[in-house]
Design goal:
This protein is 0% helix and 51% strand. It has 114 residues and is mostly beta strands. Strands 2, 4, 5, 6, 9, 10 and 11 form a seven-stranded mixed β-sheet that branches. It has a four-stranded antiparallel β-sheet with strand order 1-3-8-7, with no helix packed on it. The N and C termini lie far apart (40 Å).
Length: 114
């Protein structure tokens, strides 16, 4: 069983930066694929970024060049560095850990507004 807790969300102006963290209660070995997803009001949840056990990464086109996903297995933590934030990045951001099943965190709100 893995429990995930996200943090780091908040209110930021357009062009600003935030770093989200996701801490796992259990060990997230390199066997786990870790991902960040987001869900804006009235929209479906969408993939933002994923990182494999071998540190291969993949990003949604809308965040390429602005967001960076990384992991520190020694701290059981996955990060999402978000730069040059735009109002359309406003959403609840969720962390996911996948091995034989998917585990989700409770989400953290990111609001980009002037």
């Amino acid at each position: 069983q893995v429990q995930l807790v996200e943090s780091g969300g908040g209110l930021v102006q357009p062009g600003g930066s935030l770093r989200l963290s996701c801490v796992a209660s259990g060990s997230i070995s390199r066997l786990y694929v870790m991902g960040w997803y987001r869900q804006a009001p009235g929209k479906q949840r969408e993939l933002v970024a994923v990182i494999s056990g071998g540190d291969n990464t993949n990003y949604a086109d809308s965040v390429k060049g602005r967001f960076t996903i990384s992991r520190d297995n020694t701290k059981n933590t996955v990060y999402l560095q978000m730069n040059n934030l735009k109002p359309e990045d406003t959403a609840v951001y969720y962390c996911q850990a996948t091995l034989t099943k998917a585990y989700w965190g409770q989400g953290t709100q990111v609001t980009v507004s002037s």
